[in-house]
TrEMBL record:
The lineage of its organism: Bacteria, Pseudomonadati, Pseudomonadota, Alphaproteobacteria, Sphingomonadales. This is Alpha/beta hydrolase. Coiled coil: none annotated. Keywords: Hydrolase, Signal. Residues 78-182 form the AB hydrolase-1 domain. InterPro entries: AB_hydrolase, AB_hydrolase_1, AB_hydrolase_fold. Pfam families: Abhydrolase_1. The keyword Flavoprotein does not apply. The keyword DNA-binding does not apply. It comes from Sphingopyxis bauzanensis. Residues 1-31 form the signal peptide.
Amino acid sequence: MIAFPPLQIFRRRHPGVAAALALLASAAVVAAVPEPANAQQPATATASASAAKTGYAEVNGLRLDYAVHGDLASKQTPLLVLHGAFMSGEAMAPFVTPFAASRPVITIDARGHGRTGKVRGALSYDQMADDAVAVLASLGIKRADVLGYSMGGSTAIAMAVRHPDRVGKQVIISGAASLDGWIPEVLAGIAQMTPEMFAGTPMETEYKRLSPTPDAFPDLVAAIKHIDATPFAFSDAQLRAIPGRTMVILGDADGVTFDHASSCSSCAAAATSRPRRRVS
């Protein structure tokens, strides 16, 4: 069983912190809880996930960890899966396993996360988008569909805006196209986070298990606080110019506002209603 710190102790004094930690923990719990012994999964998907090819790509001054599930030589469009803050590519297994049954799937450990190791400098969505495209290029992939969760969702949007010829279809889960798309209380809670608040949580435990720099977790906390306090925004015009089809997914208890997600979805619908330019 995963033990969490008693959030109720400071929920009354710091409701935003509790909300932010609960939001972050929800994804980590899904990734950390093992499948039941009698869980039924397609054999091909399980085999593909267990036979992942792993490695590092030298991109933009750092070594980014990646994993490839499936055969890149197949004629199926690859799917790039981008994780959220305090997660890793490995944590996205619930998405990877079913998709890897029918197409190659690539995961990346973003800057400062997972096996990529200690964050160096500030995080930005533009930089992480460029990192992802560079990893695809290192693998000889001209274009991929993209699925991004939370931080990975905003990174996916940045990829489609900055590198539209490299992105096919995309799925944005709990991602924002601007800083003000987040619920203010969640951002306020993130601003108050400290490394000590993560003691014993899956976020800290998994970081220390995977990272080549296990003592650098406080640096990651600082980097996440910084990116979530730094204004960014992709305009409606930029979103409408994205050529690929886009699905926007939001949960009832999400950190992104419904109005923002609805606006992003409307822009995506307007974009795909136009005649589309074929990219070879």
